[in-house]
Amino acid sequence: MREVLQAAAATTPQLIHHVVGLDLGDRWSRYCVLDESGTAVEEDWIRTSVAGIEKRFSGKPPLRIVLEAGTHSPWVSRLLESYQHQVVVANPRKVRLIYESDRKNDRLDARMLARLGRLDVNLLAPVRHAAPRLRRIWRWCAAGTRWWPRARNRSTPCAGP
Questions:
Q1: Are 47 and 27 in contact (CB under 8 A)?
Q2: pLDDT higher for 13 or 77?
Q3: Half-sphere exposure of 109 toward its Cβ, with a 13 Å CA cutoff?
Q4: CA-to-CA distance for 109 and 124, rounded, in angstroms?
Q5: Fewer CB atoms inside 10 A, N or C side of the chain?
Q6: Is the pTM of this model over 0.85?
Q7: What's the order of all strands across the beta sheet hosting 64-68?
Q8: Which residue has the higher pLDDT, 120 or 81?
Q9: In the predicted model, what is the mean pLDDT of residues 5-12?
Q10: Which domains does the chain have, with CATH numbers?
Q11: Rounded alpha-carbon distances, angstroms, from residue 17 to 27, 53, 59
């Protein structure tokens, strides 16, 4: 038993010391960084752009970054994963603490995402975004038969006429 635990410890990824809750907006996003004890060590705004996210999160030690699924979450999650961060995309319909909150604002949402990500990732009902190519194919299938020959020629799993 001891050997199994030691082998598991040897294969675990680098320890994550900070958790970030990131509430994405169209132009600006709010984030909150929690340390190991759950204390908020940093809260601020960043521009919801590649440059803004790169400026804040590239070159940093591995972080667990929690964000809600939405319009910007696919490209933001891929960008953050490219910086070697652990990204958790929360299902907003399953996180009642946020969507049923009486005091709804970006600062509190970012803080709540960080706290939930620190406690247990499974509470967030995490989702995985589809690859960009697969999403394009789904749009073709949903568009109807005028796109069907194009999708069929790419040997996709769409059900056609």
A1: yes
A2: 77
A3: 21
A4: 13
A5: N
A6: no
A7: 40-47, 28-34, 19-23, 64-68, 86-90
A8: 81
A9: 37
A10: 2-124 (3.30.420.10), 131-161 (no CATH)
A11: 28, 20, 15
